[in-house]
Amino acid sequence: MTTDELYNRLKSIQPGAVLCTYTKEKCEQMLPLINEINERKKDQDTVILAHSYVAPEIILGVADYNGDSFKLSEDATKVTQKTILFSAVRFMGETAKILNPEKDVLIPGPLTGCSLADSITGEEVRELRKKYPEHTFVCYINTTADVKAACDVCVTSGNVMKIIERLPTDKIVFVPDRLMGQNIQADLDKRGIKKEIVLHNGCCYVHETYDSELIDFFRSQNPGLKVVSHPECHPGVALLSDYVGSTGQMVNYIKEQPDETPFLLLTECGLNARMQYEHPKKRFIGSCSMCKYMKSNSLENILETLRHPEKAEHVELDESVRVAAKKCIDAMFYYAK
Ligand code: 13P
Ligand code: SF4
Questions:
Q1: Among 13, 203, 247, 266, which is disulfide-ready with 229 (CB 3.0 to 4.6 Å)?
Q2: Which of 6-10, 211-215, 269-273 has the highest mean pLDDT?
Q3: Which residue's CA is minimally distant from atom 5 of ligand 2?
């Protein structure tokens, strides 16, 4: 890749933050890192999967696969390389390892957590199971392997409504996202489906910041505005949105709208940047809410991990936990079909 090629792909991104402003000089500085990472990928039989929230230079410069957590977990089952470097957060790397135990899965970055995944442990789920012995335990994919191992079915933001509806039970404990749980309940109520959903109190610290006043303000300023939000947002936000879905579903929705449409994307700013370079004729307002965990991925730490992977950067799972967690994910593939 040349500097001009890289610059041509990045130059249409114009959010306010300095972090997301690309100049030719910046591309020139990044290029040696990008080229070395791409060389090493080949030499070290490594594939890079990147979530849409990581920095655009990772997605456009070095990633082989990009998407939402469900798509990436499916991609992870199809790759032929012996090593998967997951540029995202730890729970996504764990999901790749659960599905591909024979692969070496690497996660770079100093902050690999997630406010949702960190809000509950497997031990807490096992305690809850004693309190709700009759309930089916459903976990969001944003959980550790240990939590998945303690639950019955996993869901993603893209398939949660379908799976909850299809589950042959009306007693569900949903962990850990309280707001997503409230969105599920609202959706079931709207469709007249009676199910009791017991909620935990986890939250995504990025998505919980959006509120209906923000939507009202931007709507008043932008006629024809399409508001697109993630199910990790408040139910009040979901109610006022034109579309609610996973990051992958948002991408598809935006693609189908006419050019010149203004959008307010209520999700992490990386998706906004991705949409700006994929749809230069559409208008994207906000969002500049940044996930510190996703944004702690950088070309520098990806390269460092490829050069000298630290022990903590290899995902290692206890085999009994992995097998139990895989059962929970397999149940998701079964109900999502
Ligand atoms: P998606 O599955 O929609 O990509 O969401 C993952 C996530 O972490 C949202 O905050
Ligand atoms: Fe977790 Fe929220 Fe970051 Fe997604 S955006 S990885 S849910 S903290």
A1: 266
A2: 211-215
A3: 291
